[in-house]
Amino acid sequence: MERGKKRAIYPGSFDPITFGHIDIAQRSLKIFDELIIAIGDNRNKDPLFSKAQRLAQINEIFSENDAVQAVMFDGLLVDLARQLEVFTVVRGLRAVSDFEFEFQLSSFNRKMEPRVESFFMMTSEKYFYISSSMVRQVASLGGDISDFVPPNVSADLKNHRR
Ligand code: COA
Predict the structure, then answer these.
(1) What is the domain count for the chain?
(2) Residues 6+ apart with CB under 8 A from 89
(3) Active-site annotation holder among 7, 21, 51, 136
(4) Residue 74 lies in a domain
(5) In-domain check, residue 1
(6) Which of 37, 42, 55 has most ligand 1 atoms within 8 Å of CB, for mutation?
(7) Is the bond preceding 16 in cis, omega lying within 30 degrees of 0?
């Protein structure tokens, strides 16, 4: 990626990525020139897909968009920010209930690395109710998830169920 461009990191578990995440990624590109989707692990969650699987899903979804790059990371987000020299972090907010966690996360991150600034975007009203865990649950019970995730993710969830 070129220097001098406005770059941001969009971190998350993305287990799996949903239309809500994709909407945030696409809209953030009105502000940033390049977005690095960083697939990490939230220690409070037990992942369904490996990080490599999530990376493959995200790469396929954004294969036509050169402004988006996906990476996996272990460890702290602030270490990734230092490594990439990108200190803006994008996160989506769905409801008031997200605020407390995001406030804590961004405060911790800024305390550990003062150059980090978090940038919050409101999730589109079309997607505010979607969550990855709901999608996983509906898929595991054989429900239709095509309104929530792209076809490649839907296929992976179906294969997983089998
Ligand atoms: N539309 C729809 N759903 C959305 C959404 C949107 N715009 N934005 C978030 N969500 C949902 C997700 O579907 C997910 O749902 P779930 O809780 O049912 O799984 C949830 O909101 C949040 O998931 P996601 O955005 O994928 O990421 P996360 O909050 O699990 O990610 C990390 C957290 C990875 C960024 C954070 O744990 C991290 O930085 N980890 C690295 C270690 C570190 O540095 N820790 C810092 C400690 S202070």
Answers:
(1) 1
(2) 8, 9, 10, 11, 77, 81, 106, 109, 116, 117, 118, 119
(3) 21
(4) yes
(5) no
(6) 42
(7) yes
Distance of CA 152 to the CA centre of its chain: 16
Catalytic residue status for 106: no
Active site residue 45: yes
Q: How far is the CA of 42 from the centre of ligand 1 (A)?
A: 7
The one-digit pLDDT tens for each residue of the chain (162 residues) are: 555 899 999 999 999 999 999 999 999 999 999 999 999 988 887 899 999 999 999 999 999 999 999 999 999 999 999 999 999 999 999 888 789 999 999 999 999 999 999 999 999 999 989 999 999 999 999 999 999 999 999 999 999 877
- Does residue 71 form part of some domain? yes
Determine, yes or no, domain membership for 46.
Answer: yes
Domain span at 120: 7-161
Task: Write the CATH number for 49.
Answer: 3.40.50.620
> Closest residue (by CA) to atom 31 of ligand 1?
12
